[in-house]
Structures are given as C-alpha cells and as structure tokens.
Amino acid sequence: MNTLIVTAIRCSLMFLVPALACAGSAQWNLNPGSGDWDTAENWTPMTVPNGPTDIATFALSNTTNVSISEDTEVNGITFTSAGGFDYHLPDGICRTCSIRWITKRGRPFPRS
Fold first, then answer.
1. Can you tell me the distance from the alpha carbon of 7 to that of 97, in angstroms, rounded to the nearest whole number?
2. Phi, psi (5° rounding) for residue 21?
3. What is the pLDDT along the chain (112 residues), one digit of tens a residue?
C-alpha cells in the first residue's frame, strides 16, 4: 500500500515540477541594476513576474523605487518583513495592471 502511495506522488510530481520551472514568479534583487520591473536581471530567478499565476516578492533591496514600463499582470505581490515596507510602487503606474492580492509580513494588505 505504501509503495502505491509513493508511486502516485512521484507520478504527480512529474507533471507539477515542469509547470513550476516555467513559472515567472521571482524575488526583487538586493542590488538590481535599475528600478525597472520589466528587466529580468533585477529578479531572482532572472525572469519578470508577468502572468496570471506569477507572484512578485519584495524583500531587502538597495533599490526600492520600482517602475513598470509595460502592462503587467501578477497573481500577487508579497512584501516580506526584511524590508518590504520601504518599497514605493506608485498607484496608476501602468494602465492595465492586474494584481489579485498583496500581503505584508504574511497578512493581507488592504488595497484602496
């Protein structure tokens, strides 16, 4: 019985891992080259969060004034306790931004 459960888990991971590898979720770098959201080198892993399932995470960084130069969609934005309160993401920075949720220190953050 245990062998059957382990086999089922392994089989399900075969389909889950490639989907996670292609995801665009990323964390803003400690020392990004610029404040541009749309520059992949500013994120780890080197990809721009811009998709309906992507999550952008902001922690400690030396560049906290972030601009968005293209239309952007993310499932959520997380600000960690390691510096997330210092970020400036101005309202109305892009015309068609879609953000489903925002958290600060793991708690929902009210959106105006």
1. 42
2. -65, -30
3. 566 565 556 645 444 444 444 458 999 999 999 999 999 999 999 999 999 899 999 989 999 888 888 888 888 888 887 765 577 765 654 545 566 666 665 666 555 4
Burial group, residue 108, by CB count within 10 angstroms (0-12, 13-18, 19+) = exposed
Ramachandran category for residue 38: left, alpha or beta (phi over 0 → left; psi -120 to 50 → alpha): alpha
Give how far Cα 82 sits from Cα of 12, 25, 70, 93, Å: 34, 18, 27, 24
DSSP-H helix ranges across the chain: 2-21
Residue located via tokens 């969609």: 73
pTM of this structure:
0.66
Whether 54 contacts 24, CB under 8 Å: yes
